[in-house]
TrEMBL record:
<dbReference type="Pfam" id="PF00825">
    <property type="entry name" value="Ribonuclease_P"/>
</dbReference>
<keyword id="KW-0540">Nuclease</keyword>
<dbReference type="InterPro" id="IPR020568">
    <property type="entry name" value="Ribosomal_Su5_D2-typ_SF"/>
</dbReference>
<comment type="similarity">
    <text>Belongs to the RnpA family.</text>
</comment>
<keyword id="KW-0378">Hydrolase</keyword>
<dbReference type="InterPro" id="IPR000100">
    <property type="entry name" value="RNase_P"/>
</dbReference>
<comment type="subunit">
    <text>Consists of a catalytic RNA component (M1 or rnpB) and a protein subunit.</text>
</comment>
<feature type="region of interest" description="Disordered">
    <location>
        <begin position="112"/>
        <end position="143"/>
    </location>
</feature>
<protein>
    <recommendedName>
        <fullName>Ribonuclease P protein component</fullName>
        <ecNumber>3.1.26.5</ecNumber>
    </recommendedName>
</protein>
<keyword id="KW-0255">Endonuclease</keyword>
<keyword id="KW-0694">RNA-binding</keyword>
<dbReference type="GO" id="GO:0004526">
    <property type="term" value="F:ribonuclease P activity"/>
</dbReference>
<comment type="function">
    <text>RNaseP catalyzes the removal of the 5'-leader sequence from pre-tRNA to produce the mature 5'-terminus. It can also cleave other RNA substrates such as 4.5S RNA. The protein component plays an auxiliary but essential role in vivo by binding to the 5'-leader sequence and broadening the substrate specificity of the ribozyme.</text>
</comment>
<dbReference type="GO" id="GO:0001682">
    <property type="term" value="P:tRNA 5'-leader removal"/>
</dbReference>
<dbReference type="GO" id="GO:0000049">
    <property type="term" value="F:tRNA binding"/>
</dbReference>
<dbReference type="GO" id="GO:0030677">
    <property type="term" value="C:ribonuclease P complex"/>
</dbReference>
<keyword id="KW-0819">tRNA processing</keyword>
């Protein structure tokens, strides 16, 4: 269970993260993250919120997915930077996914956002640059 201070509750908080934060999508979920510099006087705890729409399934299925995601995020909350805020949005394939599959997708999304345990900021704290479409040898070349 997430502590009260670590939960997002207000729709305005969700809206800020969804509009201003970074996004990483996987097959079963999308993670939106907003990292802010916490004030020095009060240490800000990392917070998380969940969006599981009716497209995922009926009430029982949605609550099961939410419980699984809440458990997975609470285990990873301590590894996130102070002041960071996550919104985890479940996609319809999350309904039939196991906890291990959801955890793998969550970890991959967090790594892609630079918040995972094995990933740090790219190049001395500079933000990661998006890949150019068509760049690289995997797209073929006319040699």
């Amino acid at each position: 269970m997430l502590p009260a201070a670590a939960r997002l509750r207000r729709s305005a908080d969700f809206r800020v993260v969804l509009r201003r934060g970074s996004r990483a999508g996987k097959r079963r979920l999308v993670v939106h993250a907003l990292t802010t510099d916490p004030p020095v006087a009060t240490p800000a705890v990392a917070r998380a919120g969940f969006v599981v729409s009716k497209a995922v399934g009926n009430s029982v299925v949605r609550h099961r997915v939410t419980r699984r995601l809440r458990h997975l995020v609470s285990a990873r909350l301590g590894t996130l930077p102070e002041g960071s805020t996550l919104v985890v949005r479940a996609l319809p394939p999350a309904a039939s996914a196991s906890s291990a599959e959801l955890g793998a997708d969550l970890d991959a999304a967090l790594r892609r956002l630079g918040l995972g345990p094995s990933s740090g900021p790219a190049r001395d704290g500079a933000p990661r640059q998006p890949r150019q479409q068509g760049a690289g040898p995997e797209h073929g070349s006319a040699v």
